[in-house]
Amino acid sequence: MASLVRKLEQFVRLSPVDHVILNRASTERVRHFGPRVDIVREGEKPKDVHLILSGWACRYKQLEDGRRQVVAFFLPGDICDVNVFILREMDHSIGTITQVAVADLSREFFDQVAAGHPRIVTAFWWETLVNAAIQREWTMNLGQRTALERMAHLLCEIWLRLRLSGLTKGDSCDFPLTQGDLADATGLSKVHVNRTLQELRAAGLIVLKGKTLAVPNLDRLMEAGLFNPNYLHMDHEGRQLDAASITDTAVG
Amino acid sequence: MASLVRKLEQFVRLSPVDHVILNRASTERVRHFGPRVDIVREGEKPKDVHLILSGWACRYKQLEDGRRQVVAFFLPGDICDVNVFILREMDHSIGTITQVAVADLSREFFDQVAAGHPRIVTAFWWETLVNAAIQREWTMNLGQRTALERMAHLLCEIWLRLRLSGLTKGDSCDFPLTQGDLADATGLSKVHVNRTLQELRAAGLIVLKGKTLAVPNLDRLMEAGLFNPNYLHMDHEGRQLDAASITDTAVG
DNA sequence: CGCTTTCTTGACATGCATCAAGTCGGGTGG
DNA sequence: CCACCCGACTTGATGCATGTCAAGAAAGCG
Hints:
- Two copies of one chain form a homodimer.
- Chain A is α+β, with helices and mostly antiparallel strands.
- Helices cover about 45% and strands about 20% of the residues of chain A.
- At the A-B interface, strand 5, helix 3 and helix 4 of A face strand 5, helix 3 and helix 4 of B.
C-alpha cells in the first residue's frame, strides 16, 4: 500500500487518520494470485474494488473470435475502479501478468470514506480522472500513432508511472511484459512488436533484455513517441495545497 | 436538461428535491455556441463542468503535426467530466459539432450535491463509470476491429445512446457528423470512411443521407460491429431499487 | 447563383499482418 | 548437472487492408 499513499499524496496531503484508514483497508483482506491468472472476469457481478499491492496486472477485453485488447496496465498502488460495485456486471476482465497481491476494498470501506474522509474522496476522484485521461490517451495512441510512436509512447507512460510510485532505480526498472502483452496493448501483431522493439533498440532509445527495461535517455524516447506527459497530471499540485482547502471544495 | 434527468433516472430514482437541484443547475448559467467551435482547449485550467443541453459536441486530442483523434462524442444530457476542476489543466479539447447549448456547473454546485444529495452523487459516479467503460470500448474498437466492424460499432453506440435519451424517432435519428468526423473518431482516413459507409449501405445495414441516419435492423448492424451493449450498462437497475438503499451504500 | 465544404471515385503506395521456420532461454525432471 | 521441453523471441517471404494522391460531382449556404 505504500505506493498507493505515495501516489495519492502527490496530489492531496492526507492526514494521519487518513493514513490509518488506508493502511487498514489495504492489509485487512489481501489475496495472492499467481502469474497469468484472472482476478475478475467479464460478466461477473463486481463486488469489491481491487487495490494492487504488488505485481503487475492488466485490464483486457476479448472478442468472441479471440482477438484480445489490453486496455490498461495496473501497477502497484493502482486501484482498479473506485466504486465499480455500482455497476451490475463487469464489462471487461482483469488478469495478472506477474504474481500479484491484491487488497479487496469493500463497499463499506468506501461508505466510511465518503462519510468522514473528504481528502481521501478527493484523492479517489483524482485517481479516477487520471485513469480516464490515460484511457483517452490510449485511444489516441491506437488511432493516430504509428507502430514505433505507439510503442515508444507506451513505454514512456509505464516508465513515468513506475517512477511516480518509486519503482524505478536509476534508468532501469523491472519489466515483466512479454512481446505478446505489448502486442495486445498496442493493437499490433507480435511479429511487428518484435521488429518495432528492435528499431527502438537500434536507435539507442531502450535497452530491453530479460525482464528489465532501461531508458538511457527519456527525453529522446518521449520525442520518438510524441509523448506529452500532461495527461498523467503529475503536477504535484497537492503538495502545496493545504488539504482542508481542497477537500472543502473539490468533491462531489 | 430533460435528457440528463431521463438518463440518470435509468439508474437511480431521484427525489423531487433532486429534480429541483438539477433543474436549477442546468438553467442557471447557460451558454450557446455555434457549430465547429471550441468550448474548452487543451492546456486551459478547467473551471466549470459542462453539461450538454442540446446539440452534439466531441472531445478530441491533437498531435503537433495535425493528426487529430476524436476520443468521445457528447450528446444531449452528457456531462463532460464530473469534477474536472480537480485537475490543473485540460489534457484535451472540447469542440462543438452542431450548435450547442451548454450549462456550466460550478464547483459550488458539486459541493452542494456532495453535501446533501447522495442519490445524485451515486448517479454521477454511475455516469463517470459508464463513460470510462465507453472509453475502454473505443480503445478496443481502434485496436482490434476492422474498418467495417469499427464503423458499425460506432454507429450502434451512438444509436443506443441517442435512444436512451429519447432522441430517436422510429428507426431514424439526426446525424450531424461528417465523414471527416467519423474518420477522426475511428482512426481511418476520410476516403476509407467513405468506402466503408458505402459497404454498410450496400449491405442494407444503414441508410445515411443528408444529416439523417436510419438503422433498419439494429440486430444486424450490431452483428456486423461485433457489438455487445454490456459496456453501456443500460440495465436500468435503478428502476427497481429504492434510491435510499443505494445511496446509503454505494458512494465514495 | 457562385463559393466552399462534403462526398465520391479511381489509381497507386505502404505499413503492418500473416505464414512459416527457426533459435534462444530458463525451468524441470531424471 | 545435464538434457529436454516449452514458451518467448527472431527472421524472412509474401499478402492485404488501409492510406495517399488527385480530380471531379454533389450539396449546402450566403
